[in-house]
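Here we describe the complex-level prediction in full. Unlike the single-chain runs in Section 2.1, the two entities below were treated as one system.
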Amino acid sequence: MKTLPGVAMAVSLSSGLLPAQSVGPEALSLRAYPGWTFLESGVRRTSGDSSVAKFSEYRNVPSGVFVRNFILDSALPMSGSYFRLQSRENSEKDLHALAGAGVYGRYKITANWNRIYHEVVTAGRNSYVRSGPGQFSLPSGFQALQSAPRQNLAVERNSVGLGLTVTPSEAWDLRLQYSPERRTGYRPSGNTFGFTVVELPEPVEYRTRDVKASAEVAKPKWAVQASSEISLFRNEVKALEWTGLLQPGQRAAAGASGRRALDPDNTAQNLTLSGALQLARSARIVATVSPGWMRQNEAFVPFTIDPAIQGRPDYPALPARSLNGSKQTLMMNYLLTGKAGKQFGYNARYRSYRLDNETPSLRFSGYVPYDSTPSVFTEAAPRSRRNLPYAYRKQNVNLEWVWEPGKTSAARWFYEWEAWDRTYRDVKRSNEHTAGASWDWMNRGGWGLQALMQHSRRRPERYDPDYFLASFPAGTGIFALPQLPGLRRVDQAARTRNYGTVSLQAPATESISVSAAYTVDRAFFEESRYGDLYDLNDSASFDLSYLVTPSISLFADYTHEKFRYALRSRQRLDASPIGPASDSPGNDWESNIRDSVHTWGVGLNAGMFRNRLAVDANYGFSQGDNVTATMALGNPAAEGFLATSAENYPKLGNRFQRLAVSLKFALSDRVFYRIEYAHERYKESDLALEQAVPFLGLTDAGAQRAAFLGTVLPRYRVHIWSISLGYLF
Amino acid sequence: MCVPVQRRVRGWYWIGLVCSLYPAGLNLEAAQGRPVPGAAAAAIAPETCRRCHRDYYQTWAASTHARLDGRYSESPAKQGCEACHGSGLDHVQSGNRALIFRFNGSPAESIENACLKCHERGNRLYWRGSPHESRNITCTNCHTLHKKADIPQPGVRFQERPLETRLLRKQTSMEVCFQCHLLQKAQLQRSSHMPLREGKLTCVDCHNPHGTATPKLLAENSVNENCYRCHAEKRGPFLWEHPPVAEDCLNCHEAHGSVHPAMLKTRPPRLCQRCHMRAGHSTQPQPAANRLIYNLGCANCHSQIHGSNHPSGVRLHR
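The structure predicted for the assembly as a whole is:
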C-alpha cells in the first residue's frame, strides 16, 4: 500500500513526534490518498498481585505479546468507498475491534466485537461441586470448606454489533442494527435456608439479542424519525440448586437442599416516532412518542425442592403455570424552542413517562418460605400473598427563558414541575416544583464562568405507609405491627433541596490555565421523623495546566467530595409466642454516615530532541473513606430497651494509586518504539470482607450456619512493563 | 388513587407529529446581512482557498468532511470550504476577512447554524433547546472541523475503545466531556466505578450530549431503560418486584462511581434500613460482627433484590 509522507506526518504530529514545519507540499494531495495502516505491538510483563480480582475487575492484562493499536484505513477516492479496521489494547480475554466499510454518502456497514472480562471475586473457597448447570452438591462434608481450593469468579461478556446504514438520498437515512451478546461465567450470590446462608457461585449463562431498525427523512424545515427495537433475553440456567449438609448436626433431609429461581427470560420492544418542525420566527417544535412493551412468561418453579414437603396434604397449588407478566411504557416528549428577538430565547417542554403494569395480580393461597422449613404457610396461617403490579407515571413541565446579552454570555431562568403518580406505593401522588437560574459566560481569551442555582420543594399529597397490606389478602398474621408512623421513604418523602454550582475557567497567563468548580447539594426531609433526615453533598474541583515551553506541559487536578446522611429508625418486635410486641420510642436509634473522597492527579507531557522523544508521566490517587456512627436515642437502663446493638462501625476506606511513565522514541517518520512502566496499588479496609471467612461461625457466634466463599480483601500491588514498536505502513 | 391503565393512545399525542408536515420558517441571520454559511452557492473550489490557507486546507483534506465532499449532497452550498464558511466569492475578490464566515469569535448560534445545516438530524434532533445549547455551549466546544484521521494514543488515565471518528477536539470522547464535568471525572476514579477508565464504556454509551427527550441527556427513555441495555436480566417483569428498583436504579446506585461496593449509595444494612423499618431484624441497628454486615450484607439472603420469579420469593430471597 502506498503511503504518502503527508499522512505519516499527520500521524506523527498527532503523536507529538515531529514539528509541524516539516510537512511537505506533497501533503496537499491528500484528497487523493488511498489509505494507511498502523500497527503498534510489543511485549508486556505484569508482575505482582495481578491475580487479584480488583485488578482484573474490568480488564485482562496478561504478560506476553500484545497489540496496543491496529488501524487499517483504506479508501478509493474515485469510487468514494472506504474500509477502516481498528483494534486496541487486545488480549485473549479483553478485546475491542471496530470495522467499517462503505461508500461515503451512500451506505455504511459497521461491525464491532467487544470482549469484556469482569472478575468479581478473589480467591473464593467453595466446597460445593458443580454437578450440572446451576446444580451444586457438597459431597465431602462442610469441614472441607476450610481446605477447599481457592478460585476467582469472573464473568465474560462477548458482544458483537452489526450495522447497516443506507442513505438513498440526502434526505433519507435507513439503519439496521443487530447486536447479539453472550455473558458467561460465575458470580457470587447468597442463598438461604432461612437464616442459614450459603454463598455459591451463581452461573451466568445469558444470551441477549437486540435488533433495531430505523428510518429518517430530514428536510431543511422538518424531519421525521421512526424506529423499532426488539430485545430478547434468555437465561440458559433457570434455577440454582444446592444439596448437601451445611454443617454437622443440621437436618439431613429437607434442610440440606435449596433452590433459587434465577432471572427469567424476557423480551422488550420499543417503537419510537419523532418529528421536528421549524416554525416561523426561529421557533421549532420537536415531538417524540415512544411506546414500549416488556414481557416475561417463564414457567414457575415449584414452591420447594423438598419432595417431603411437596407430598404434604396442605401443600398449596400454584395459581398459574407462569406469570404472563407484561408492562407497557409510553414516553412522550414535546419541546417548543425558539428566539424572541435577537437576545432572547425560550424553551418549553412537556415530558411524560408512563409505566402501566398489566401483569396479573396472582393470589398465592400459601407458600413454602424456605426449602429447609417443614411448615407450609397456608391460608389458615394466614400467609396467603398476592403480587402487586406496581405502576407509575412521571410528568415534567419545563419552562426556560434565555437571555444572551452578548456573543459570549447567556443567562437562563427556569421553572420545572415534576409530578409522580404511583400505584401500590406509600405516596400515590407527589409534586415537586423547582426554580432556578444560571449564568454562563466565556470570552475569546478563554475566560469562562458558569453558575447555576436552583431550589426545589417536593410534597406528597398523602402518605400511606401501609400500602403493602394489599399484598396480604387474608390478613397479615404475625405482621401485627403496622408500618412505623412517621416513616417517610427517601424516594417519596417531602423534600426541600437547594443545589448550586459555580465553575471558573481562567487562563491566568498565556501559559497557565486554571479551572475550578464548587458544587453544593442540600436535601432536607422535613416531614420525616423516621427514615432519611437529610442528605448533604459538597464537592470542590481544581484543574491546572501549565505550558512550560511549547513542548513541555504540566497538569494537576484535585477533587474533594463530601457526603453526609442521617438516618433514624426504631427497633421493633412483632408479637411472638415468646413475647409481646415492642414498639417504644425508647428504642429509637440514629445513624450518621459520612463519606469523603479525595482524587488528585499530576502529570507531565514533554517533547525533546526536536520532538523525537516524547515523555508522558502521570500519577493519580483516589482515597475514599466512610464513617458510620450509630447511637441509641433511648435510655439503655430503661425497661424493654432493645437497641443494644447501636454501635459505631470501624472506619472503612480504600486507596487507589497509579503511576505511569511512557517514553516514545521516533526512529523515523514511520517508526517509533515505546517503553512504558506502570505501577498500581490498591488497598482497602472493609469490615464486610475482613471477617467474612468461609465459615462465619468462627467470628460471629450467632451465625453458626453461614458459609461464604471467603472472598479476601482486594489489595494488590502490580507492576506492568512493556516495550512496543509502532510502524506506519 | 391508582394510576389508571391507559390502553389507548389519545389522538392529541400525535398532533406534534402531524404538524411537522407543514414546512415554514424564517432565516433571521440572512435578513441581518451577515455572512451566512451555505446561503449562496458561489462554489469557490477548495483549491482556491488553499492558495492562502494551506494549513487549514491540509487538515480539512485529510478529514471525513473532505472524503464526503460532493457525495453527500449535490448542492454546491454543501460542498468544499463554502459548506461551512458560506459564500467565499466576495472574500476571494476583496481579501476582506469580514466577508467570510469564521468560526472563531462567532456567536454560538451562528456556529450551530453552520453545522446544523447538514447535521440537524439523527441524534441531533433535540440539539436546539437542549441543556448544552441553552448554556451557550456550541459545536466547536467539543468538535473541530479541521482534524486529520490520526492514531489514537494510549489513554493516560482513561482508556477508550475504538469509536467511529467524530472530529473531536480531544483524543477521546471522555476528555471532551471532562473539560467541564470535573466531578464526573473524579467519580469515575472511585474504587467502585463504571468501567470508563478501563475503556469498556464511554460517556456517550449512556448519554447523548446533543440532546434527548429524556432528562440528564440519557440515550434511552428512562434511567432504568438505560441500564437495561447492558443488564437485560434485570428487566423483568418479575412476580415479586421491589418497587424502588422497578422505578429508578438510582434510588440505590450511584451512576458514575461510589466508594461503596456495587456502586451503591451507601452500604447495607443502612442502605436498606432507609426504608425498611416495620419490625424485626431490619429495624435492629446491627453490630459490626454480624452476618447482616459481612460480605453482601442484606443481599446475603435477599439476593434477588432486583426481583424474584420464585413463587415463594416474596421476600426477594429465592
